[in-house]
Structures are given as C-alpha cells and as structure tokens.
Amino acid sequence: MIRPGEKVLLVGPSGVGKSTLLHALAGVLERRETDELEVQQGASDAPGGPEGPLGELLVDGAPAADRATVTGLLQQDPESGIVLARVGDDVAFGPENLAVPSEQIWPRVTETLDAVGLAVELDRDTEALSGGQQQRLALAGVTAMRPRLLLLDEPTANLDPEGVRTVRDAVEAVAVQTGATLIVVEHRTEVWTDLVERVVVLGAGGVEHDGTPGQVFGDPARRRVLLERGVWVPDAPAPEPVVSPATDGEPLLRAVGLEVSRDQPGSRALAGRRRLARRGRPVPEHLNAGTPAARPVDLTVRRGSATAVTGNNGVGKSTLALTLAGLLVPAGGTVEAQPALAGDTVADPSAWTGRELVTRVGTVFQEPEHQFLTQSVRAELAEGPRRAGWSQDRIDSTVEELLQRLELTDLAEANPFTLSGGQKRRLSVGTVMAAAPDILVLDEPTFGQDSRTWWSVVDLLADQVRAGRAVVVVTHDRDLIRALGAREIELHAAPSVEQPDAPAPLTTRGGGSWLERRDALTKLACAVALTVPLILSADPITSGLILLGELAALSLAGQRPLRLLLAAWPLVLAALLSGWGTALLAEDSGPPLVSVGPLTLTQGSVAAGAAISLRGLALALPGLMLLLTTDPTDLADGLARTLRLPARFVIAALVGLRLMSVMIKQWQVLVTARRARGAGASRNPGTVLAEWGGRAFGLLVQALRRATRLAVTMEARGFGSVVEARDRTWARPIRRGAADALLLVITLALAVGAPIASHVAGAQRFIWQ
Amino acid sequence: MTSTTSHSPGTGSNGSPRGATRTGAALRWRVVDLVVLAVLAAAGGVIFWAWSNLIYPVITGASVAYPPAAGLMLGGWLVAGTLGGLIIRKPGAALLCELLAAIFEGVMGTHFGLTVVISGIVQGLGAELVFAAVRYRRAGLGVAAAAGALSGLFGSISECLLYYYEWPVAHQGVYVALATLSGAVIAGVAMWLLVRALRGTGVLSALASGR
Predict the structure, then answer these.
(1) Fold of the CATH domain A7-228
(2) From start to end residue, where is composition biased (Low complexity) (chain B) (predicted)?
C-alpha cells in the first residue's frame, strides 16, 4: 500500500518483476500478464486485500488497467522515452492524447521543460540531445500529463554521472512541484536515498523489507544480502584493487601524438589506405580522419596493465579507444603495434585483416547486440577462434571453459539476443576474449549493471591483466578504475572544438525556402495533382512540360535542379533504362535505326522509349520535392486532421519513420562493431552479401525492440487508449493562407494545361491508346 | 490494450463469454502492433528504395537483351506485405504494411514517383487475400509463399498496365509468370525464413507471431 505523495524506492534482484509491476501500475500490461503479476504481487500491493486467488492492483481505488488516474512511466533507455522528432511536439504528445484543449498545451510544455531544466528551443531535433537531456525530455513528456503517480524504471542506468545528476535533480524538482506519488526502480540506490522516504525490497516471495532508507540500508546483515543480490547499497566502501598491474610490462601498442576524429574517410579511401599501409608505404594526409576532437595523446599499452580513458562527454573517448583498436583511422599522429603484438604482420592496426585483428585486439562495444554474429551462445564464443583458424579440438575446449567462466553453460544453445542484460554483457566480453587477443578494449563495460554483473566483469578483466594481457577501458566509473589499478588517461577537448554542452546553432525549421514554408498537405495535393496526368498520358510533351514546371519549383525550394539530378543519379539511370527496355520491345514503326540480329530499334520505338524516360523523371520529382521541403510531423497532422485518416495509424507511421531513420544512423556503428569481431573484411562477393544481410538483420532486431518499448511509452502517454483517438486534441495549429492557395492553383494549371497543350500540338496520347 | 475492455474478472466486455472476447481480441490492433507495423514498413521502404535505385538499374541493365526477365526481381518490392502479414497477423496488416512501405519509398524518391502508392495497394491486396483466406490463423511456409506469389501476380499485372503498356502481350505474359515466381521466393520463402530468425531473437514476443 502506497499513500498519495509518498516517494518510494523499489529494489530487488534482476528478474524479480520490478519493471512488470511498474508497467502494471501504469496500466500498460495486457490482461494475461496482469493476472500473472497479481498472483505474485497481489498480497503485498492490494490495499483492499486479496480478492479470490488473484488479488487486485488498485490505483486510486480503481483497477490500474482502467487508467482512471493519470500515471507517468519513464523507462530505462532514453531513446525509448521519446516519441516525436521535435522537442516541443514530444512534450505536447501526452496532453494531446488526454484531449487537453490546444490553447492550454503550449503553456504546459514550456512550464514543464523549465521544471526539468531543459532550456532548448521547442523545434530542436530530439536526436541532437545528449542521453541526459533525452531522459529529461522524456520526463517532461510524462510530467506534462500532470500525473498523480510517477513511475521511474531505472531512469539513470544508461547515463553518465553528469546525466545521472541532472535527471535526479529534475525528478526532485518535478516531485516537489506536483506533489506526485513517486516510485523509482534502480540498482544504484545512492542516487535516490536522500530523495525517497521509503525503500521496499522485493524478493522472489514478495516484499522482503519495507522501511525508511536508514532502516533498510543501515543494517549490516541486510546490506550484505542486498549486495549479494546485485543491489548497490549507498555509502559502500570503494572496492579494493583486485590486481596490482605491472608498470614495466613489455610494450604492445604505442600511440604518439595521436589525434582522433569520428569524421572517417569513405570506404574506398579506407581500402586504399589499408593497401598502402600493408605495403609499408607512408599514408598521405588526405586518407586520414577529419578534424580532431581532442588534444593529441601519447600512450603506451603494456602487457599486464590496465589503462582507463576518461574525460567529458563528447570529447572523443570512444573514438580514441576504437582508433587504438584499429577500427578507426587516426586524424593525426600514429598508432603502432610493437613487435610483441604485431608478430608477422604490419604495425598499423587499422590495416589488419579480420583474422589478424581478432587474435590481437578484442573490442567490446557498449551495446552488446551490435556485435552478435550468430544464433547461439556457443557459436558466438566459437566465432573468434574459428576466424583465427584454430583446430576444432582447441575451439571446443576453449568454448567449454569460457561457458563455465561466464556462467552461461546452461544457456549454451540459447539465442544471444534472448539473454538478460547482464548475461549479454558477460557474453560480449567472452566473445572477444575467446580468440585470446593480447589487448582488450572495452567501452563503458560497467554502465547500468547491477553489482553482481559489475563484479563478474571486473573479475574477468582482472584475470586478463594477471594473465599478462592489457586492458583498455573507456569509463566514468571510478570504482572500476580503482579495482583494476588502471592508469588514467584524461582526454581534453581540442581548443578549436566547441564544448558539447554549449547550445547548438538554431535549426532553421521555422524559416527555410518559400516552398518549405507552405502547408504540408497542400504540397501533398500538388504532388498528387502532378502525378495523375503523368500516369494517364504517354506522350513526351505532357511529361516534358510538367518536368519543366517541377524543375522551376525546385528552384523555389532552394535546390539547384541540376545538382539534385546529379545527386539522384540512380534515379535518372533507372528512368533511362526503363526507356531502353521500351525502345527494344515496343512495336516497330517508322524507319529502322539500328538492326543487330533480333535487336531492332526504329524511330518509333526509340521515341516511345524516350517518352517513357521523360515520364519516369517527371514522376520521380514530386515525391522528392515533398521529402525535401516537408516535415513529416506536419504532414501527419494534415493527414489526420484535414483528411481525417485514422489518427492512431498516422501517428504510428510517423513514429515508425522516425525510428527507422534513427536506426539507419546506427549503420556505421554496426559496421565498426562487427569488424571488431572480424566480420566484413573479406572481399568475396558471397561473404560481402552475407555480411550486409547480417547487419540489416541486426538493425531490424534493434528497431523492433525499440518499437516494442516505444509502444509502451506511447501507451503510457495515453496514446489511443485514454480517449478515443479521434477525440484527441492537436497542439500545432494548421495555417493555410493565400500563398498555399496560389501554389495549388499554379500546380493545377500545370497539371491540366500540359495535356491540353500537348493535345493542341497534336501529340497527346492516352496511356492505353 | 486492457483499458478498452472491462476489468472485472471472469467476464469479458458486454458480458459476452470470455472465449469469444479473446478471439476478438486476437484480431484487434494494439499500439504495439501499429508501431511494429510502421517500423517494418519503414524498413520495407528502405529496401524498396534500394531495390528501385541500386538493384533495378543493375538487373535491368543485365536484362537489356530481354527486358521481361526483370520480372524475376519484382519480389524485392513485395517483401513488406508478406513480412507485415506474417509478423502482425491482424486483418489489414499485409495491405497496410506494403502500402506504407511504398509511400515511404515514394517520398524517398524513385523514378516510379507516387505511382508506387497504386502499386503498394495492388501488391498488398494480393498478399492480404491469402492471409484473410486462412483467417489470419496460419503463417507457415505455404501461406507465405502463396501470399508472395499472389502479391507478385497482382503487382506484375498492374505494372504491365502502368509501365509496360508498349510491350506485346506475349512478353507481358512472361513478365507476369516470372514476377509471380519471384514473389513466391523472395517475398514468400525468404521472408518466412527471416521471420523465423527474428522469432529466435525474442523481439517478436510481444506480438502474435512471437507467441
């Protein structure tokens, strides 16, 4: 039983059902799942006492699933808490779904953004925010609904210390302002102990402890039990170093004056660079990466040592690690493998083949799923050794040993994607250890882990150091640095680079070209109006006139028509080729031009082909123009409000589109992450194709996972369930003016005029004529 | 989800027997179905776009001597319909997914322009009819291949009317036959394999196809 206004921290081992309970309280579970949950939690959470065998979950005296009370749910992954592409729209999404009158929405939005301390423009791209900012935005999206119950599911687990602090402060501000009841689930309890007044410990059998933070965390025996279960208790002493690294180990890798940059050369330039480096030739400047993010670094990685790369967010820590690991090329300076590491190959790690790489440097990415290549845990562990060319016996014994070491023996045949967060983390470390590389590079290996996974990762790494290998970690985690006895390299931003926290330049969404400022639905109507005569007519004059009109419109959109056509060359080529097909197959008429064997091109068939090409180009441009000048959110508004298309479907389509563009941006990360496992270095066409398929599959899996989480967020924000979708309000006004009417009139004139002009010229031809 | 049904235990909404409500619920669209459909359509749109702009010129270039052979690659433009039908398993999923993917492709820019919307409806309808015929209950290899094939049949006939109207009827016939085969293999069998692999990762567990 939780009283109104109470602030509760909910802790317990992974898998005990904390998240499920929050989802149930938010009313976003399905009936089937709610029943199962009530069996477990009914006795402890039902204020009215258990009713029948199931018990009840009541919020404000009504079943949680009825959603009678506005509840706000914040999930762990910041990306899953954001629904729309612009900051203001995203905060307005919840109030819209609750049918708050639109004139009240914007004051609420600004007020809420103030409360969470997010001072950015309302039309800022939500993708351009840092993790901490995104999580505060998600909190604002929840708060704007004025919830009486605020449910936070590990809100800081994926954030760096700076982000953790800002999100915690924002939660406090919101809780104080609204007086909402607060339930937080989190492994890292010290963040919340001074904010909450009550701590509830869940175990397999239900509530195990319930009291003030002092009562629950004060008892030494209870602290020990909690720690064993993976809960971080506050004020625990920092762990003692578990290894004493060597300082005079044999040097493996040396970086001199190393500058790094995310701005990497294109794939062709990279291949050329690799070829030069493998022949031992000097690499010309233009094949290096772009403007360096951080000041130059000198460092030596030695056997039996640990190195920690630290520094502010966005300063390039991960980029430095990936450059050391040979996965990115430097912007300046050198990375050289010493003979002890390089062995019989070249000294430049970025020129190594997949096989050379996996046996020398193993890189673990922050997101384990980026690096999974196979369908089972066992195959995943065998992959590195297999690429290294080991014998089957050696592979088998290594894999068995690792499975035990990682406590994954029971899951050997499981699909890696189905593991829990902690298991995935252990597996990803294990997969790169398998081929016994001398250097392990890990990006934030302890982010968001409970204390059990934390210790298992630390133990794995300490073992590597003891065995005479070198460990390089990118981290914010002071305890990890201390436990590994790591030498710290602090990275500083290059003087020329602006600080990542400085406000980014304003986006130009409000302004833009004449065409960009026009109403979205009007532009769609124009595109359709131009497409209809093109579909129906098959003569070059109609197509040509409309094409000319489109090119003029492109200039209005601030595009250079010629440059656009060059950039869209595949489209032009496709249009030409379809013309060619027709020229070959169309009935021969008129004087023959070319005749080679069965191939006959006549004047008539070539003219038909040219007409088809022209028509294809003219057909392609309206869609492109719409894409270049229209914000999808505005188009969705128009479709749902003016055309009355089902709002649920239109908004879901909008969200899907945004999600996919987010995922496509991750393509390059995926390429790099898989290369770290030795994939994608082969030039064999079959292997290249398989690798592309593997990446696309990985991307799809993650997109679907995100979609599922985002659906929970949308539902928690009242989407399509609290009020009927057709009754929701819309925060953005639709403005249609004289200029929009003018655009429509001109377009219609062209759409009607072109076939008429063609008819007058005697060339007009209906498509099936 | 649950919020639209009565919560009192033991009875479904409107006092109807629980079993009947469950069957109805199995075919009702939830938020997660909508969002997953949109993501699949967006992925399909990217595939369509790549097919139109990267693969189509190559294949058409290779088939210059005999253009109807290009029917063999029509299947690539049909994957969203069968994928949506196989994963979501709700009325309209195949049609909507193929249509939405085509719209996404259209705005990304292809030489087919907004005519892709027509293609999307026609192709999606082909796949949808097959899923509807098995009442959205089965999604095996045979159903997948049939959905792909019918989608290809519908799609290629519409293309003959929209793009290849200058071709003699015999060539059009070959085109339709090859496109139907392509649909069965690329949009049918290959998508069935993809869904099987996706199910293995657990990401479909919130959907009808993952249970």
Answers:
(1) Rossmann fold (3.40.50)
(2) 1-16
